[in-house]
Design goal:
Elements: H1 3-24, H2 26-29, H3 35-42, H4 46-64, H5 67-74, H6 76-94, H7 99-127, H8 132-161, H9 166-170, H10 173-186, H11 206-234, H12 240-267, H13 272-291, H14 295-322, H15 327-345, H16 347-359, H17 363-383
Helix pairs in contact: 1-6, 1-7, 1-8, 1-10, 4-7, 4-11, 4-15, 4-16, 5-6, 5-7, 6-7, 6-10, 7-14, 7-15, 8-12, 8-14, 11-12, 11-14, 11-15, 11-16, 11-17, 12-14, 13-14, 13-17, 16-17
Length: 405
């Protein structure tokens, strides 16, 4: 490959990472601020609200297992552009407004996000092998900023348009369409060839399961925040608009948290203490939100929660590249960790909804969240070790199935 072609390919990859990242979070974060309006408008119960907030992580888990095969057949760039097409269709379907359109659109959106989530870490490892933490931080920052903007504007946008939730959710298709057009232009002629791999090797690997567990634990709490933080805030007396802004601030602060990951990873080859500290900070954030006696404390706790969760999410994505020796193994590890991890995460919003409905308060859900934070801390202690999983390209297991990098 010539220097000019390599530079063009890297520029195209950078554009792809930024634009796809900006489009992935809004379909998830935009629902929580208007969830009460959706349930009231359609005459649905809070249990259905729990189901609706559980659907995205379920889809992210189920469809993540499909991503490595799609990548092998069509290549990274075509798969990611295809994900944007699927996202566009899902956002438009949800705007139709019926119960089944809402559910069906959420499933379609979840499928597009899932495949893109798995493929992007492999693209980063392939084109930026020596800058995995930095480029992953850029990806995570754009991901969280897109989600923050959507969470902040969905309620006021609905008020300006005279539509409680249908038009605001439908308008999420506009930035996806823009990203699709720009990516198709930036990546014209770019085709990547993939090798035959054996991703099943990782399912028998201890370190791969530890990375998966860390991904699942931090994702579980992230989707609890996406689905229930506004409701938690409104139980403290906040208005729907202020609660939506609170979620937006939490998501925006996540971007700052994600920016700390490349600095920490560059200086520390072993990420155990970083992961453990993030688990503790997440617990403090949840405790502050649910036990805070005043609004000022709620906002402070939300900032702490956002910083910790943003850094934890960025670290989880970075581990895919740091714990894998090549891009093919990165995608395989990403598919396993996100597939199983998001299925673990899917239990969070549903359990929180059921416990809140059964007890009428947030004390019991808070206990569950503290247990999850403890789990994240323990899993981070083992997943953060300076080790790598074996390559899925003709690799053989040795010892406990891990190798030194």
């Amino acid at each position: 490959m010539t220097t000019q072609l390599r530079e063009r390919f890297a520029i195209g990859t950078s554009v792809l990472v930024v634009l796809v990242a900006l489009a992935l979070r809004p379909p998830v974060t935009a629902v929580a601020p208007v969830l009460d309006r959706i349930l009231g408008d359609l005459g649905l119960s809070s249990t259905f609200g729990g189901v609706l907030t559980t659907l995205p992580p379920v889809c992210l888990g189920v469809f993540a297992f499909v991503a490595p095969r799609l990548r092998q057949r069509f290549g990274d760039e075509r798969v990611l552009v295809g994900c944007l097409v699927v996202l566009l269709a899902g956002n438009l379907l949800r705007a139709a407004g019926s119960v089944w359109a809402l559910v069906g659109g959420t499933v379609v959106v979840g499928a597009g996000i899932a495949v893109a989530n798995v493929a992007l870490p492999g693209v980063i490892k392939r084109d930026f092998p020596s800058r995995v933490p930095g480029v992953t931080a850029l990806y995570t920052m754009c991901l969280t900023l897109g989600g923050a903007l959507a969470a902040s504007v969905v309620v006021p946008l609905g008020g300006a348009l005279g539509s409680a939730w249908r038009l605001p959710l439908g308008l999420l298709a506009v930035p996806v369409l823009l990203a699709l057009l720009l990516c198709a232009f930036a990546l014209r002629g770019a085709v990547s060839r993939q090798r035959v791999v054996r991703p099943g090797l990782l399912w028998r690997n201890r370190l791969a399961w530890q990375v998966t567990g860390f991904m699942g634990a931090q994702s579980l709490m992230a989707y609890v925040v996406f689905g229930w933080l506004p409701s938690m805030a409104q139980s403290q007396g906040m208005s729907a608009e202020a609660a939506g802004a609170l979620l937006g601030v939490q998501a925006a602060v996540q971007a700052l948290g994600s920016l700390t990951v490349p600095v920490l990873c560059r200086r520390l080859r072993d990420q155990r203490w970083v992961a453990m500290a993030l688990g503790v900070l997440t617990a403090l954030g949840f405790a502050g939100v649910l036990l805070a006696p005043g609004t000022a404390v709620v906002w402070t706790a939300t900032v702490v929660l956002g910083l910790a969760q943003g850094a934890a999410f960025g670290l989880a994505l970075t581990l895919f590249g740091l714990r894998a020796p090549d891009s093919d193994t990165t995608v395989a590890l990403s598919g396993m960790a996100q597939g199983a991890g998001y299925l673990i995460a899917a239990t969070g919003p549903l359990l929180i909804g059921v416990l809140h409905g059964a007890t009428g308060g947030w004390s019991v859900p808070l206990v569950l969240l503290m247990v999850c934070c403890a789990g994240e801390t323990v899993l981070g202690a083992v997943a953060g070790r300076d080790r790598q999983v074996p390559s899925v390209i003709g690799a053989q297991h040795a010892g406990d199935g891990t190798t030194a990098p």
